[in-house]
Design a protein that fits this description.
Blueprint: E1 4-5, H1 8-28, E2 34-40, H2 44-60, E3 63-69, H3 75-87, E4 93-96, H4 106-112, H5 124-131, H6 140-151, E5 160-164, H7 171-180, E6 184-188, H8 195-199, E7 204-207, E8 225-228, E9 232-233, E10 239-240, H9 245-249, E11 254-255, H10 262-285
Parallel strand pairs: 1-11, 2-3, 2-4, 5-6, 5-7, 7-8, 8-11
Antiparallel strand pairs: 9-10
Helix pairs in contact: 1-10, 2-10, 6-7, 6-10
The chain binds ligand LMY7XDAE.
The site of the ligand Nc1nc2c(c(=O)[nH]1)N[C@@H](CN(C=O)c1ccc(C(=O)N[C@@H](CCC(=O)O)C(=O)O)cc1)CN2 has 21 residues, from helix 2, strand 4, helix 6 and helix 10.
Catalytic activity: (6R)-5,10-methylene-5,6,7,8-tetrahydrofolate + NADP(+) = (6R)-5,10-methenyltetrahydrofolate + NADPH; (6R)-5,10-methenyltetrahydrofolate + H2O = (6R)-10-formyltetrahydrofolate + H(+)
Pathway: One-carbon metabolism; tetrahydrofolate interconversion
Family: Belongs to the tetrahydrofolate dehydrogenase/cyclohydrolase family.
């Protein structure tokens, strides 16, 4: 079988065009969605992702601003900055780009963001609401993955989804989202013994481990839908995923590429969450 490639860049573009119309109509109703991005330090990858977010906002008609803070900022100063944004009525969504420098407690910072402005969907309130199947901000990468599967009408209900990776921002929430959509979910991670035993049973395989090309065709069940969340930069500067694209494409039914797969969808779902935040806040403030 030769897999159908799910082009995240194209899907992202299509969704952004639809959102652009929604933003125009919100603005006609006096709602001007606004995202504030907070970037601490000068991690080149984070800077590039933040630039991508600003560009996507601009494309969609969402206004945004970037607060750049030095690596030396204290945790208290950062928390004060978030408090100010929480109180600023013109800001609908707050996003703190991760990772943060080691001296800052990431969880404390995430918890400082008011849940109504948590467009990353990382706050425990958002996570708890997602777990219980309530309406909430879904974390952007898992939300993007779900949207990619749905865009191809890939059946989730009753299927076996295997997640390789258990991070708070991808592995754990994507498993929960698939469970909410009635999949049977297995989580695997760095201490899982005999990984293949599980991946070989996956109808849907999500790989988010950060090890370049580690999952080859021998890990794949014939006809599986394979979603590659890894973004690994090789010595020659090129990007590759966690999945060995060439061999897996021969066995899977669907496969996401890297780049132009899950990455652009992450940013697109952030736009969706920002629009949702703007609608929610403006409607509740009256
Ligand atoms: N506060 C957050 N921090 C981080 C998140 C997040 O969702 N919220 N996710 C990642 C990074 N990330 C977004 O922030 C992100 C990663 C990758 C891409 C992307 O479009 N990748 C491109 C390739 C880009 C390149 O050339 O380097 C692709 O896959 O085509 C977008 C966003 C960690 N931090």
């Amino acid at each position: 079988m030769a897999a159908e490639i799910i082009n995240g860049k194209e899907l992202a573009q299509q969704l952004r065009t639809e959102m652009k119309d929604e933003v125009v109509s919100l603005k006609n109703d006096g709602i001007h969605p606004h995202l504030t991005v907070v970037l601490v330090g000068d991690n080149p990858a984070s800077k590039s992702y933040v630039r991508g977010k600003e560009k996507a906002c601009l494309e969609t008609g969402i206004s945004s601003d970037l607060i750049e803070l030095p690596t030396t900022i204290t945790e208290e100063e950062l928390l004060n900055q978030i408090d100010q944004l929480n109180d600023d009525h013109s800001v609908h969504g707050i996003l703190v780009q991760l990772p943060l420098p080691e001296h800052i407690n990431e969880q404390k910072v995430i918890e400082a963001i008011r849940p109504e402005k948590d467009v990353d969907g990382f706050h425990p309130v958002s996570i708890g609401r997602m777990m219980t199947g309530m309406d909430t901000f879904l974390p952007c990468t898992p939300y993007g993955i779900l949207t990619m599967l749905q865009s191809k009408d890939i059946e989730i209900e009753g299927k076996h989804a295997v997640i390789v990776g258990r991070s708070n921002i991808v592995g754990k929430p994507v498993g929960q989202l698939l469970l909410n959509n009635h999949a049977t979910v297995t989580y695997c991670h760095s201490r899982t013994q005999n990984l293949k035993q599980y991946t070989n049973q996956a109808d849907i395989l999500i790989v988010a481990v950060g090890r370049a090309n580690g999952i080859d065709a021998s890990y794949i069940k014939e006809g599986a839908a394979v979603i590659d969340v890894g973004i690994n930069r090789l010595k020659d500067g090129s990007l590759t995923g966690d999945v060995d694209f060439e061999s897996v494409a021969q066995k899977a039914s669907y496969l996401t590429p890297v780049p132009k797969g899950v990455g652009p969808m992450t940013i697109t779902m952030l736009l969706k969450n920002t629009i949702k935040a703007a609608k929610g806040i403006e409607n509740s403030e009256g």
